[in-house]
Design brief:
Elements: H1 2-15, E1 21-25, E2 28-36, E3 39-47, E4 53-58, E5 65-72, E6 75-83, E7 89-97, E8 103-107
Antiparallel strand pairs: 1-2, 2-3, 3-4, 4-5, 5-6, 6-7, 7-8
Length: 113
């Protein structure tokens, strides 16, 4: 979980401007409001009852999506990408781990849904 959250935060940090607004609750990221040139958008993050990140909503100019995260043994196992408007499954990524419980591979499908 920490690895995935760190990856998300690193990707977001690289695209942040100094005007971005980060909202958190304790150690959980709740939302980030991005301000880039003349465009603004707000990503929101949801957690399950165990405190694990289970959904990221990413509205954008190009493609609004929900990313749902399924867990296996307390670790992210799949990332499911849905179109926010239609609810249609866009893509599914599977995460596998090595014997040290580190991410070994993220499998991307060769075709869209």
């Amino acid at each position: 979980m920490k690895k995935l959250l760190i990856i998300v935060l690193l990707v977001n940090a690289m695209s942040c401007s100094t005007e971005d607004i980060v909202n958190s609750k304790g150690t959980q990221l709740v939302s980030i409001q991005y301000i880039y040139t003349n465009t603004e958008w707000k990503e929101s993050y949801r957690y399950n009852s165990e405190g694990l990140l289970d959904q990221v909503k990413i509205p954008s100019v190009y493609d609004d999506k929900n990313i749902e995260i399924t867990y296996v043994d307390g670790k992210p196992g799949e990332l499911l990408y849905y179109n926010m408007g239609s609810g249609r499954l866009i893509s599914r990524d599977s995460i596998t781990y090595n014997s040290l419980n580190k991410i070994d591979r993220i499998s991307y499908p060769s075709e869209s849904f």
